[in-house]
Structure formats: C-alpha cells, structure tokens
Amino acid sequence: MSHYTAVITWERNGAVFTDNRYSRVHRWHFDGGINVPASASPHVVPPELALAAAVDPEEAFVAALASCHMLWFLSLAAKQGFVVETYRDASTGVLARNGEGHMAMTEVTLRPHVAFARDKRPSAAEHEALHHEAHALCYIANSITSDVRCDAVDVTVDTQP
C-alpha cells in the first residue's frame, strides 16, 4: 500500500469572510517540493474571488485522470515494443448535476494524440486495445464513478534521417 499527501494552504488576509466575498486563491504543496497556485474556478465563484491562472480542482481532476491514463498507456506500449514519440491529450471534463442532483464531474473525455515511430506501430485494433487496458489499469479511473471516454488519435513520426 502506498500513501500520498498534499498540503493545501489558504489565508484570509483580512477579508471579512462571513460575507462570503473572500479570495478562493490557495496553494497546493506536494511532497516532492513543488507548490502549485490553486483557486476555485471562475466558473464556480465570481471571477474577482478566483485566480483564472491557477489550477482549480475540476481541472486537476481531469489532469490527474488523463495523466494516469497516459502513464499506463506508455508502459503498456513499451512492453509491447511500440515506440511512442509524443503523447498529447487535450482532455475535457463536464461539471453538471448527477443523478442525485449534486454538482459533479459527470463526464471526462480523453483525447490522446499519440505519435508512434514508423519502425513498429500498433494496428488500429492494437492501439484501441492499449487505451482500453490503460483505462482498466488507471488508479484514478478505478477510483471514480464519472463516465470516462477516450477519443484517441495516433500519428506516425518518421524517425529516419
């Protein structure tokens, strides 16, 4: 069993607070030493109370899911002898009311664009199977109830001089 930590810090900085007009800007501190500016989404609170340039929890949710999927995909591709040159995923998430009427991330769509070296590349069926297995192995996907979709694209990269 592994344990993971994140320390989240926020300060009132003199705001009245009880009027609910306080800043939602905060920081995420991770055990490797990185600090990430974070905020509520400007789609959720008034923009003047948020920081659009910071990462919000909804974006982090989508990024964590996409990152986990990618890491499994890369591992599986390597084990099967496929050389991945680049992997880019412009994932999206939908925040909406779920079946119980609560706001939730109800859908995430992964859009991996994978470039394989020309030497050995998967067939369309093998490529789809790699993504299917990556999804089945992804810790984050196995931890959520949202519908997760994957619209993958692969590209050949000519590695010959």
Mean pLDDT value: 92
Number of domain units: 2
Annotation, overall tally of beta strands: 9
**What is the chain-wise order of helices and strands?**
EEEHEEEEHEE
Shape: elongated
In CATH's first tier, which class of the largest domain applies?
Alpha Beta
Largest β sheet strand count, sense and barrel closure: 3 strands, antiparallel
The SS-based structural class is alpha/beta
Parts with pLDDT < 50 across at least 5 consecutive residues: none
| Assigned CATH architecture of the largest domain | 2-Layer Sandwich
CATH topology of the largest domain: GMP Synthetase, Chain A, domain 3
Radius of gyration: 19 Å
Output the number of helix runs.
Answer: 2
Q: By CATH's scheme, which homologous superfamily of the largest domain applies?
A: K homology (KH) domain
Concise structural overview:
With 161 residues, the chain is of the alpha/beta class. It contains 2 helices and 9 strands; from the N terminus they run βββαββββαββ. Helix 1 crosses helix 2 (124-137).
Key structural traits:
161 residues, alpha/beta, GMP Synthetase, Chain A, domain 3, 2 domains, 3-stranded antiparallel beta sheet, 3-stranded mixed beta sheet
